[in-house]
Specification:
The protein is of the alpha/beta class and 285 residues long. It has one domain: Rossmann fold, CATH 3.40.50.150. The chain has nine helices and nine strands. The chain has helices at 18-24, 47-58, 78-91, 111-120, 131-143, 185-199, 211-214, 219-233, 248-260; strands at 33-34, 40-41, 100-104, 123-128, 150-154, 172-177, 238-245, 265-273, 276-284. The strands form two sheets. A seven-stranded mixed beta sheet has the order 5-4-3-6-7-9-8, sandwiched between helices. A two-stranded antiparallel ribbon has the order 1-2. Strand 4 (123-128), helix 5 and strand 5 form a beta-alpha-beta unit.
């Protein structure tokens, strides 16, 4: 089944070849079956099956052969994450020989740096506030021999996003971010319960995620406005500042604020994977 809406350059936009994928990751085999419509598939409500599928997708890149992280961390859907990388490539000038990206909130899976290195050979500085996540990410980097391409930095102050991370010599082609959606742990748990109910009881871990991945005081809107404000303090550190934005109304409010902060160009790149519609907000000073 072809995934509608993926970027034309996305290698997964023609659907999944499970025969090839089980060769990439033999642990996927036990979850593959033929359904009543005679289609080869997996049970997408089973978090273990989904994790092994995404491992298989990631292992289709030659540079990546190890990707281990705890079950309580979110398992990112590889095709959608790869789409952000391709859209970022569209944004960055093709004349740039040496591209370095700042990934804000990289998480334990370190997924954007892995994909950016594998697809475009970019360099990354990746940040997170959670030390356990950074430890896991560093293990993944080391196991794949990518320590020269990906540098990790810890954010020690949850009030800040760029402040305390940026160093004098830093210059980035772009920043990227997948911000937390929810305003509190309670709101995140409520959303988890709703999704679990819709898919059946065994789906709980499909929507796992630690606090820093899922919520931020004030939710996505507060995070984005803090990010925008801090980018105005370091306007020359990056040619582009970008972020995924799940709620359409948050883009409008961000765009209004950007004018007051001296943003010269603001654009929105729509993204779609299956029925899920999202967008990337991009701005430069």
């Amino acid at each position: 089944m072809k995934d509608k809406g993926l970027h034309p350059k996305n290698k997964f936009n023609k659907g999944y070849n499970f025969e090839e994928l089980t060769q990439n990751n033999s642990a996927l085999k036990e979850f593959v079956f033929t359904n009543t419509y005679n289609a080869v598939t997996i049970d997408f409500s089973n978090p273990k099956a989904v994790k092994e599928l995404n491992k298989a997708l990631l292992f289709s890149f030659n540079q990546i052969s190890v990707w281990d992280f705890p079950d309580e961390n979110l398992c990112p859907p590889i095709p959608g994450r790869l789409d952000y990388i391709h859209h970022l490539s569209d944004l960055i000038s093709s004349e740039e020989k040496e591209v370095t990206i700042l990934d804000i909130g990289t998480g334990a899976t370190c997924i954007y740096p892995l994909l950016g290195v594998a697809e475009y050979n970019w360099n990354f500085v990746a940040t997170d506030i959670d030390l356990d996540s950074l430890d896991t990410a560093q293990d993944i980097i080391d196991d794949n021999g990518l320590d020269r391409k990906i540098e990790l930095r810890q954010q020690f102050d949850e009030q800040h996003i760029l402040k305390g991370i940026l160093e004098d010599e830093d210059t980035f082609s772009a920043t990227m971010c997948n911000p937390p959606f929810y305003k509190s742990a309670e709101e995140a748990r409520g959303a988890n319960r709703r999704k679990t109910k819709n898919l059946g009881n065994n789906a709980v871990r499909n929507f796992s995620g630690n606090n820093n991945e899922l919520w931020y005081v004030g939710g996505e809107k507060a995070f984005l406005h803090n990010y925008l404000y801090e980018s105005s303090l370091y306007p020359k550190k990056s040619k582009w500042f970008t972020s995924l934005v799940s709620k359409k109304e948050n883009v409008e409010s961000l765009q209004k604020s950007s004018k007051k902060l001296g943003v010269k160009q603001f654009k929105v790149m729509p993204m779609q994977q299956g029925n899920k519609v999202t967008r990337i907000a991009c701005w430069q000073f």
